[in-house]
Amino acid sequence: PQFKIEIITFFRKSSRGDFVFSADRLIRLVVEEGLNQLPYTECTVTTPTGHKYEGVKFEKGNCGVSIMRSGEAMEQGLRDCCRSIRIGKILIQSDEETQRAKVYYAKFPPDIYRRKVLLMYPILSTGNTVIEAVKVLVEHGVQPSVIILLSLFSTPHG
Q1: TM spans, by residue (predicted)?
Q2: Does some domain include residue 1?
């Protein structure tokens, strides 16, 4: 889904504080929508006042992977929603002339092949970096069907 957010995020004269606030808010909205795509189970809890509350609980086996460095900006939004979630990292850089993506570093939870993956990359331009990241995840045993891309902005090529 696409979100609309106050124009202040894009307004040239907005203060740094306003921009950061709006960007963090947008990241949180995108992360929460990504979390909505993960499997959950319904559960009932009893509140301290003795009332029953019907809710949901995420199933175990989810993780985040940030494409460094811009993807790291989304990590706090994910941690704000899921304090104990495991987060992996991958560093991919594109050659300026050829636009070919090259992996320089990848560190994932050891059992990533059993997890659902929230792949965090805020600005999607050509798509080459994300394509390479998905290839690396697949090489580590992750099924493409369990990879959810979290991105804030995309160009027509992305």
Answers
A1: none
A2: no
